[in-house]
Amino acid sequence: MLQVPEQLRSVADLLVMDRVSERFDIVQGEALEQRHLLVIEELWELMRDRQGAVFVDTFCRKARKRHVGLTAVTQQASDLLGSERGRAVVDNADTQIVLRQSRQAIEEVAKHFGLSDGERRWLVGCRRGEGILIAGQDRVAFRSVAAPDVEKLITTDPDEVADLARAETEQLVGEAT
Questions:
Q1: What is the largest CA-CA distance in the chain?
Q2: 95: how many CB neighbours lie within 10 A of its CB?
Q3: At which of 28, 61, 93 does a domain end?
Q4: For 47-102, how does the pLDDT look when each residue is reduced to its tens digit (9 = 90+)?
Q5: I want to staple 17 with a disulfide (CB 3.0 to 4.6 A). Which of 51, 55, 95, 139 is the partner?
Q6: Do 32 and 81 reside in the same domain of the chain?
């Protein structure tokens, strides 16, 4: 969707949402035989638009009964916790993963998830890939560590990307000589 001009983005989002609803039969309400997973990256883009927020809210409420799971990803908690529909998305999730938070965002996150003072401090100071997994009333701190080959594929850290490019260039030069 990067090639879609900004003034047409809402229309494109609606077309994609319509297709997703049809694919998972959310409108008719019949359960699919196979389990499916819909991943929404950069959820804030959908939540900023009324129609997008309604779609995500409705999808979350109905998808589980249709054997469809939803993984929604956003970097800012305020993208969800700042609106009634966003809070509904969070509250309808069986599991939430809360990663490192800024000092500015932690109070809103702490209030919504009922975090202890220790959990608040930990989320502000934890390292990349660390967070709290919340499932119902149970919570556990965790650290996600990718295997080296996977890390190369998923990293978005500019320094790591540059290091990987240099290493690949050095390998190619070494093989050519």
A1: 63
A2: 10
A3: 93
A4: 888 888 888 888 887 777 777 888 888 888 877 888 888 888 888 888 899 999 99
A5: 55
A6: yes
